[in-house]
Amino acid sequence: MQVLQAAVDAYDEAAAAVLGVNRTDLRCLELLSKHGELTPSRLGPALGLATGSVTAMLDRLQRLGYLTRSPDPTDRRKALIRLTDTAREKTWELYGPFVTEGPALMREYSTAELELLAGFLRRSRLLYQRQLQRACHIGDQP
Fold first, then answer.
1. pLDDT tens digit string along 63-80?
2. CA distance linking residue 133 with residue 47, whole number of Å
3. Quick one: which H or E segment has residue 101?
4. Are 19 and 61 contacting, i.e. CB atoms less than 8 angstroms apart?
């Protein structure tokens, strides 16, 4: 698990460098790719950023041509943040092979093996989520 995590981390670091962004910016691009559009008020908590930091990040990503901001049609006080075609193309170039090569990798396993692996990954994620909550509170106690 640690070796896999280190490989994923190293790849994400390299991808961020190729895109000219930091890891938080990369996570922002990932969230926008997943959700299509988000408001800054949803991005901030998802990334653990305060309002000013979200604004600085969005300014940076917009200057790079990776996102657009437009008024929310239902509430013009809010902005909707979306990826640009440039961002989609560059991130697909980096992460697309994981999507396109995934099915061939999965065909190497039986349905029962895939179910076992999926269960392991799901339980591992839950373990990490529980431990994250615990870690966030270490030091809170006198």
1. 999 999 999 888 888 999
2. 15
3. helix 85-106
4. no
pTM: 0.86
Q: In this structure, are strands 75-83 and 67-72 parallel, antiparallel, or unpaired?
A: antiparallel
For residue 88, give the nearest of 107, 65, 58 by alpha carbon.
65
Q: Which residues pair with 11 in a beta bridge?
A: none
H or E stretch at 71 = strand 67-72
- The tokens describing 15, both together, are 């991808």
Residues near 12 by beta carbon (within 8 Å), at least 6 away in sequence: 23, 26
Spell out the long-range contacts of 109-114 with Cβ–Cβ below 8 A and sequence spacing 24 or more.
none
Residue pair 29/81 in contact by the 8 Å Cβ criterion: no
Q: How far is CA 10 from CA 25, 31, 33, 82, in A?
A: 16, 19, 21, 26
Q: What is the DSSP letter of 36?
A: S
**Arithmetic mean of pLDDT, 91-96:** 96
